[in-house]
Design goal:
The complex is a heterodimer of chains A (about 1000) and B (about 475). With about 1000 residues, chain A is mostly beta strands. Chain A has 17 helices and 50 strands. Among the domains of chain A are: about 80 residues, Carboxypeptidase-like, regulatory domain (Immunoglobulin-like), CATH 2.60.40; about 150 residues, TonB-dependent receptor, plug domain (Ferric Hydroxamate Uptake Protein, Chain A, domain 1); about 55 residues, no CATH class. The longest helix of chain A is centred in the first third of the chain and has 18 residues. Chain A starts with a helix and ends with a strand. In chain A, about 45% of the residues are buried. Chain B has about 475 residues and is mainly alpha-helical. Chain B has 17 helices and eleven strands. In chain B, the strands form five sheets. A two-stranded antiparallel sheet of chain B has the order 2-6. Chain B is globular. The chains are: A mainly beta (about 1000), B mainly alpha (about 475). At the A-B interface, β24, β25, β26, β30 and β31 of A face α1, β1, α2, α5 and α17 of B. β30 of chain A pairs antiparallel with β1 of chain B, so a sheet runs across the interface.
């Protein structure tokens, strides 16, 4: 039967050809760099004649004589149509169009044509990750994807960014991390230091309900799918690259006092409130101090000398602590194909020294991707081995006196680092923290070693042209071993009140994380009657997570054998140096799923997508363990409609709408087993007790997030202007909130609350992304792009729970989840110097206890975030610049509370030049009289909006002509790059950028300038 | 056909993974799940241990009673602690009522733990006769502790005993954390407490002087609680009878001299019928109740200091003046110095002295002035050196003397507020104890503040709860 059909078909085709006159057209297709393109489809427009280019880019096409146009099409390069005349040879250069690069959506489970997928996705190309002098790729997503708020809260080398897609989907959950998929393998969120971003081909951000529902109970916070490079077609190429640069401290907007200024400020404090300045040298030795007049002439001279000598000491604590960091990266990689197999291998060595001592990172990664494909079978293995060592300060995230970024601000410059004998000028006196910490830094250690392994495989077999099945597997393993060593020698140890600290501490902390996944799948795709294109995928997935962690702390270290577990003292009852095992625990989770995705496309114009997923998870109680998630959506390819075909300005226009539901298993407010009411072991003096340790919640269910998304994708003026508009409404129901229980009934004591599914929260927003190829000629390409997202978060309901405090905030219906909740500053009373605050009725009070807490002072999450950039390519030169910004974000400036504060002045700490406190009636001051306490409030809630010049790259590719003279080199590229070059902000202090509501002198993002060289053999 | 086989094999593999439901039924490894919590009599005992441990919350009753009455004044280091309570401006709101909420919040943890133990007591298997015998003992102790904890809540949050008063407190006999109990009449609450105490005694073995333990519930100290409850209920005959039973058991006779003062430094355990152990160096809840480290938050009132006559050994045992930290301060010495370690002091929850005072009051109420006077004199002669027995003209005089004696004997032990309430007496402070402020010098008898407010959070979390009159 089949043979007969073929025969008939063949006959018909032959017959067609019999009636037409044919001629043969030949030529060559190359890309913009002149490299031949293989596999380009060449067809005669309006006729069935088709051919493909060979590996050298040449083609030969037999066309009817009445054919007027031939069409070249290639995935990632779009379609180019040329009109043919009498010539028989037509060669063409295809330019890759960014609009068309996004032609295929990688959802992690499948690849879909963007024109046939109703979801809203944004692809970030590998060039955005390449050679950026930052260790983790998530940071590089800032300003690239509208709706994706990426905030880098720390400049500590290797720290992850905070990534939130379209606003939070949980209040009590520990994070809003999206789900990360690397080459089909789910990988741990926020642990990226051991992954080399240079290996990335692209990153796809899935923002809509259809995509999220495909991931069922893990998709609600959005999905970020990263794909690493595969072997390039053709002969193997070896790429060597090296990069070197420096890291510098960013600008600070607080101008600190020098010694003379600080001593003068202390004197001024003494004239206002002598009691609080009694111990300060600026007042103690002051001529205005009443005791001065009682002194003998000799004593007076001594006091003057004391003051002068202090003025003469001007220690610049920034110079003591900060250094110029360095950055180096070296890679050697091989990419190529042999027959049907291709390989991509890359080894990298990355080293970064941060802005201060003991903040650095070293990384070695090995990437090996292998793939094989023939007509029936395709097989690929991706693997990553990464090892990272990172050094840390004691603290760079809290207002502690072991945080160098705080200590440099508040240590007075009249304190010297060394005594005259050359030893450290340590002291228990309050302002000496700068010295004490610096000394401790010379001896103590805080570092961790991280080992990461990510393995994936994907095998698929085509039974026929319609049906294929396959198996995908993945392993993500990470082990981090943290070490803390505290020497006995530093003053901070030897002067400690804790006998254990005096004895020295050695601590090892282990955290292990393993996730395995297995997914068999089945795919069916067929086009019926040319117009009905149907695709159906059935999947089953098994996921298992294992976690284990513990910390062992031993005491009694030996300065002669520092930083080794061997040199700790055996604990005895007598020496009380008994080692402890803390933070110990293990947990596991299983997710089992079956799911299917279906697509139907009619005549390339209308597409309907549907997803149904059924998940079973171990971390919910049995009645709620299984849940079905669904999604549906449609695409209308408007430009395919006849009435648009004549609108020449519009190259493509499509409208998409989708709705889908998902949950947030990975950011779930309850730990893996917390739904169980649990018991723990306690003690009543020497007796062991068994007591209820957690209330559990036998009715626990997921927090469900439903997303409605409408997008318009457009491409105008022959793809010169292209972009996407999105509107979404994301509603999370079943939101966890603490439900107050009866104290009497529950017997849970002070914390008689139970987290229950209660509330509803909404995020609604609008996003756009536009790219314009302003100039596009053979030698010059100039592109400008911009994107932004607006998000409004609102708590719609808290159900049975009532408004509740969370941190310093108040979770209340009608408010943004991150709205500030604080008292309102009304200035300083010029007559008395007392601070003024507003009461609820907006009258003033000087009593902070009567001040009303308002909740209308803005939110710490940006309402508007985005980025823009431009790139210019002229012959061998490439210049690109990118900017990112966040607007309408308000944070508490804790540093200002410290450096413009008379009570800190009286504590002996350094202050900012801007300190202006009330001293006498009539003073118009920004800070109250030292007689009054300083309180947090709206005064310190400041606009943290920023515009950041993220990246500037200038590259030069040596022309082919020059390269060809060197036989063994095929390509050579130099580049200069500046990262984080400038920040424009109203924010004072370190860095406006962070994901939390208060700045605690965290490690600022450094500026860096690097240069690199890349040679391809 | 080969392809079909492969396809079938894969489908089967998929199906088998999905059918692996067992993997979804994971058990926690780091906590004890409910069905693994109480599996043996030993587990049950561990549960029972916690009931006693949680009765450390008795400290709340002690401090609240002191703050609301004439036992203390705000100390030199007070920076706001207990001020709302002391100045009678407390409310149901936690920001203005932390202290007065504490009994309501703390005692249910005892009740809940007792109920958990009772729910498992009949489920755990007993190995052999020895374990078989332990179960009723554990049950008896749990039931008694449940009753005691309820009684403390009742005393605080219901008015003085009135059989017709509908606003008693709920009686909780289930460990279900989601229950929203409603108030029951006072008479019913008392009846439930009495029934539990009787039931507990029935489950427990007889006690001899040798077998008596002051750290667990037993027939003797349960009888002491019964005496306390009967006194509250104004059931004078029963109060007297129960007190007599306890006194006659002779497990803990009255102490005097250095032995008595030694009770307050934990040098000995004389007179103590029931205590909560505090042995570890960090077990300083009681030791840091009135003073915290070197900070004297609450000092003994001038009124109490003046109440002790010459030769009264209690004055020095309870009140001292000395260097605390860097300056000389007067402080509550009853819970200050310890022979076990700095501020490590047991909670003395029931003492034999109270039984003498209960019997004296009950006998006076019954009209037996002589019998009542004898008990009062017996107690005083153990406290005051050179004491000569006194006589009283009538029952009313005797009762006034007994109330005053309770003030002096049981000071800071969590009785004064409840005694004044029970007897419809006002709190009358000296002006020197109130910084000359008359606003909080007197709390009139039967004022609504003699009943504590139900915490606001309780009303939020329990729609069946009703607030006490006078509070919102």
């Amino acid at each position: 039967m089949r043979k007969f059909t073929s025969l008939v078909l063949c006959f018909l085709l032959c017959a067609g050809q019999l009636w037409a006159q044919n001629r043969t057209i030949t030529g060559k297709v190359v890309d913009e760099k002149g490299n031949p393109l293989a596999g380009v489809t060449v067809s005669a427009k309006g006729f069935s004649a088709k051919a493909q280019t060979a590996s050298n880019g040449t083609y030969s096409l037999v066309v009817p004589t009445n054919a007027k146009q031939i069409e070249f099409s290639y995935v990632g390069y779009g379609t180019e149509t040329i009109t043919i005349g009498s010539s028989i040879s037509y060669s063409i250069t295809l330019t890759s169009s960014s609009a068309e690069i996004g032609d295929v959506v990688v959802t992690g489970y499948a690849r879909q044509k963007k024109s046939q997928y109703a979801g809203s996705t944004v692809k970030v190309g590998g060039e955005n990750f390449k050679n950026v002098p930052v260790a983790t790729f998530d940071q590089m997503l800032q300003g690239k994807v509208p709706g994706l708020t990426v905030l880098n809260g720390s400049g500590q080398p290797g720290n992850p960014a905070s990534v939130v897609l379209r606003g939070p989907t949980t209040i009590l959950g520990n994070s809003n991390n999206p789900l990360y998929i690397l080459d089909g393998v789910p990988v741990e969120a926020a642990v990226f230091a051991s992954i080399n971003p240079n290996d990335f081909e692209s990153v796809e951000v899935l923002k809509d309900g259809l995509s999220m529902a495909t991931y069922g109970n893990r998709g609600a916070a959005g999905v970020i799918v990263a794909t690493t490079k595969k072997g390039t077609p053709g002969k193997a190429r070896l790429v060597l690259s090296s990069q070197y640069g420096t890291k510098m401290k960013p600008q600070f907007n607080y101008d600190m006092m020098n010694s003379t200024e600080l001593l003068a400020a202390q004197e001024r404090l003494g004239t206002v409130l002598p009691s609080s300045a009694a111990a300060l040298p600026g007042w103690m030795y002051s001529k205005l101090n009443p005791t001065y007049s009682t002194l003998t002439a000799a004593q007076k001279a001594q006091y003057d000398r004391n003051l002068d000598s202090l003025k003469g000491i001007n220690t610049n604590w920034d110079d003591v602590y900060f250094r110029t960091g360095t950055f180096q990266n070296y890679e050697i990689g091989l990419s190529g194909s042999i027959g049907k197999a291709s390989v991509f291998s890359n080894i990298s060595y990355y080293t970064e020294k941060g802005l201060i001592d003991r903040s650095d990172m070293k990384r070695v990664t090995a990437r090996n991707n292998f793939s094989y494909a023939d007509e029936k079978l395709s097989f690929s293995v991706t693997s990553l081995l990464g090892y990272t060592k990172r050094n840390f300060q004691e603290s760079t995230t809290t207002n502690g006196l072991t945080n160098p970024f705080l200590v440099t601000r508040i240590t007075p410059s009249y304190i010297s680092l060394y005594k005259t004998d050359g030893t450290f000028n340590t002291s228990t006196a309050q302002p000496y923290y700068g010295v004490n910490l610096y000394e401790a830094m010379q001896y103590n250690q805080n570092y961790n070693d991280q080992f990461k392994l990510t393995l994936g495989s994907n095998t698929s077999y085509k039974i026929n042209k319609n049906i294929s099945f396959g198996l995908q597997t993945g392993v993500d393993f990470r082990e981090t071993q943290g070490t803390i060593y505290r020497d006995t020698r530093p003053f901070l140890s030897s002067s400690s009140t804790s006998a254990l600290t005096r004895a020295g501490i050695y601590q090892e902390a282990l955290a292990r994380n393993l996730q395995i996944s297995v997914r068999p799948y089945f795919d069916f795709q067929k086009t019926f009657a040319e117009k009905h294109d149907v695709e159906f995928t059935a999947n089953a997935e098994y996921l298992r997570n294992f976690q284990k962690s513990y910390t062992v702390t031993a005491y009694g270290t030996d300065p002669k054998r520092p930083n080794t577990p061997a040199a700790t003292t055996a604990g005895t009852t007598a020496n009380a140096l008994i080692p402890t095992l803390t933070n110990a625990g293990k947990a596991e989770r299983t997710i089992e799923s079956v799911f299917g995705m279906v697509r139907y496309t009619y005549n390339k114009k209308y597409t309907v997508n549907g997803t149904l997923r059924y998940d079973g998870t171990s971390n919910l109680p049995e009645p709620n363990r299984f849940h079905a998630f669904y999604a549906f959506g449609g695409v209308w390819e408007m430009s395919q409609e006849n009435f648009f075909k004549n609108v020449r300005q519009i190259s493509s226009l499509r409208l998409k709408a989708s709705y889908g539901q998902s949950a947030n298993a990975d950011n779930f407010p309850l730990n893996y087993f917390d739904y169980n009411p649990t018991y723990g072991q306690g003690s009543y003096e020497s007796l062991v007790t068994t007591v209820r340790s957690g209330p559990g919640n036998p009715a626990a269910d997921w927090e469900y997030t439903g997303v409605t998304n409408i997008s318009l994708e457009f491409s105008l003026f022959k793809n010169r202007v292209y972009g996407q508009l999105d509107w979404y409404n994301k509603q999370t129901t079943n939101l966890y909130a603490p439900n107050q229980l009866s104290y009497l009934g529950s017997g849970l004591g002070t914390n008689s609350t139970q987290p229950v599914n209660a509330g509803t929260m909404r995020n609604r927003g609008f996003e756009y992304i536009v790219n314009v190829d302003v100039v596009k000629t053979k030698n010059l390409i100039w592109t400008v792009s911009a994107n932004a997202g607006i998000n409004r978060n609102k708590i719609l309901s808290l159900g049975t729970a009532t408004e509740f405090a969370l941190g310093t905030g108040l979770i209340k219906v009608g408010q943004d989840v991150n709205d500030h909740y604080d008292i309102r500053w009304a200035g300083v009373d010029a007559a008395t110097g007392s601070p003024l605050y507003y009461k609820q009725d907006m009258t003033l009070t000087n009593d902070v206890n009567q001040a009303f807490k308002f909740q209308d002072m803005g939110s710490s999450s940006p309402k508007l975030a985005g980025g823009f950039g431009t790139s210019l390519r002229y012959k061998g030169f490439d210049l690109s610049a990118s900017f990112s910004y966040a607007n309408a974000t308000y944070r508490v400036n804790n540093l200002e509370f410290f450096v413009e504060n008379p009570s800190f002045l009286s504590g002996g700490f350094n202050q900012a030049r801007s300190l202006n406190f009330w001293a006498k009636p009539g003073d118009i001051a920004s800070t109250q009289s030292p007689a009054y306490q300083n309180s947090f409030g709206s005064k310190y809630i400041q606009d943290a909006s920023f515009l950041r010049f993220r990246n500037l790259t200038l590259a030069y590719t040596v022309p082919k002509a020059a390269i060809n003279k060197m036989k063994f080199i095929s390509n050579m590229r130099f580049y200069l790059q500046g990262q984080n070059l400038a920040v424009w902000t109203k924010w004072k202090g370190y860095d406006p950028e962070d994901d939390n509501n208060i700045s605690l002198s965290e490690y600022p993002n450094p500026r860096s300038i690097t240069a690199g060289l890349e040679i391809t053999f | 056909m080969n392809k079909l086989n492969k396809f079938l094999f894969l489908s089967f593999a998929a199906a088998s993974i999905i059918s692996c439901k067992k993997d979804l039924d994971l058990k926690p490894t780091d906590t004890i799940s409910t069905d693994n919590s109480f599996l043996s009599v030993d587990d049950l005992q561990k549960g029972a241990n916690a009931i006693y441990g949680r009765y450390l919350n008795r400290a709340n009753t002690m401090i609240v009673s002191s703050l609301l009455t004439d036992e203390v004044k705000l100390g030199p280091d007070n920076s706001g602690q207990g001020r709302f309570t002391y100045t009678y401006t407390f409310s149901s709101d936690p920001t203005g009522g932390g202290d007065v909420n504490s009994i309501w919040i703390g005692m249910p943890t005892v009740i809940n733990q007792a109920n958990i133990v009772l729910e498992y007591a009949d489920k755990v298997p007993a190995n052999g006769a020895v374990e078989q015998a332990r179960i009723p003992i554990i049950k008896g102790q749990a039931i008694a502790m449940r009753a005691l904890a309820h009684f403390e809540v009742l005393q605080g949050y219901a008015k003085k005993y009135d059989a017709a008063d509908p606003l008693g407190i709920p009686y909780i006999t289930s460990s279900d954390i989601s229950q929203k109990p409603a108030r029951i009449p006072v008479a019913q609450t008392v009846a439930r407490i009495e029934a539990d105490l009787d039931a507990a005694k029935a489950l427990l073995p007889a006690v001899t002087v040798a077998s008596f333990s002051d750290t667990v519930m037993n027939q003797v100290n349960i009888t002491a609680i019964q005496a306390r409850v009967a006194l509250y209920k104004r059931d004078w005959q029963k109060a007297s009878d129960y007190a007599t039973t306890v006194i006659n058991s002779a497990v803990k006779p009255l102490a005097n001299g250095a032995t008595y003062t030694g009770i307050w430094t934990d040098a000995n355990k004389s007179e103590i019928l029931f205590r909560i152990r505090q042995d570890a160096a960090t077990s300083t809840t009681v030791g840091n109740l009135y003073t915290n480290g070197n900070l004297v938050y609450y000092a003994p009132s001038d009124k109490l200091t003046a109440a002790y006559g010459a030769g009264d050994i209690r004055k020095a045992a309870f009140i001292a003046t000395g260097t605390v930290g860097s300056s000389v301060k007067t402080y509550v010495n009853k819970f200050f110095t310890s022979s076990k370690g700095p501020r490590v002091l047991d909670v003395k929850a029931i003492r034999i002295a109270e039984m003498y005072l209960i019997r004296a009051e009950a006998q006076a109420e019954l009209g037996n002035v002589t019998a009542g006077t004898t008990d009062l004199n017996t107690l005083r002669s153990n406290r005051i050196s050179g004491y000569t027995n006194q006589t009283f003209a009538n029952a009313a005089d005797l009762i006034t003397a007994i109330v005053d004696e309770r003030y002096k004997e049981l000071a800071f032990e969590g009785f004064r507020y409840f005694d004044l309430k029970r007897r419809s007496l006002p709190v009358t402070r000296l002006l020197t104890d109130t910084d000359n402020n008359t606003t909080w010098q007197i709390l009139p008898a039967d004022n609504f503040r003699f009943t504590l407010p139900i915490p606001q959070q309780e009303l939020l979390g329990n729609k069946n709860m009703v607030q006490n009159p006078g509070y919102n």
